[in-house]
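Now produce a polypeptide, keeping tokens residue-aligned:
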Amino acid sequence: MLFRSLNGMTNGMIREFYELLRDVSNDPSIAVVVLTGKGKAFCPGADLKHYSSGGTDEPLRAENFLVPVLLHEIPQVTIAAINGACAGAGFGYALACDLRYAARGARMNTAFLDVAVAGDMGVPWMLPRIVGAGRARELSFFPRKIEADEAHNLNLVNAVFDATDLMAEVYARAERIAAAAPLARRGLKQHYVEAETLSFRDFINIETERHMRISKSQDTQEAFVAFVEDRKSTRLNSSHTDISRMPSSA
């Protein structure tokens, strides 16, 4: 993958990111995906210097715009570690993750109207679900840089850490999630994805069926006994992976 300054995205990078996530989604050995940027930025969106200078790029297929859908729906728990500038498409990627944590000093911005586009990567779908419909529209129609602490107050991120502590804090959470029983962890992720589109009654029916099935697993039976005996379960074993696929050349 050819990485750009400040992790600005090109068509080729978006395609490779889509293909990578598609492969990860089919790998049951991966429990957690951590998405971050190398260098001083997370992802500011499209590499506008590249596009405005007439740089050549491959055509972008419609399926490649499904990157945020994959981040949102793949069986793995997805975590955005926002280490710097996060705007436009990069903002969409972060919003699509299950959990978001930011470094103090990181800034977020919808940014689309400032560059005369209506936007992509699912921001109008995710943002109202996180901050509410009115606030989402305000942040979109009046783009501005949102400091990490304000982002926390707006529920855009789950927590803010010093930049030097961000990855350690994120990895500690990833390890805890990865240590959970795989059937239960994946089932819980499915619960949240399905609940967004189902009626309460339909969701309860699906939730109950899955709960009854998972409760019969060896992992769950062992976890019940371990809880009663006040010890760690001996059967839980999983892993996590770090997708730091947006390193910076700056």
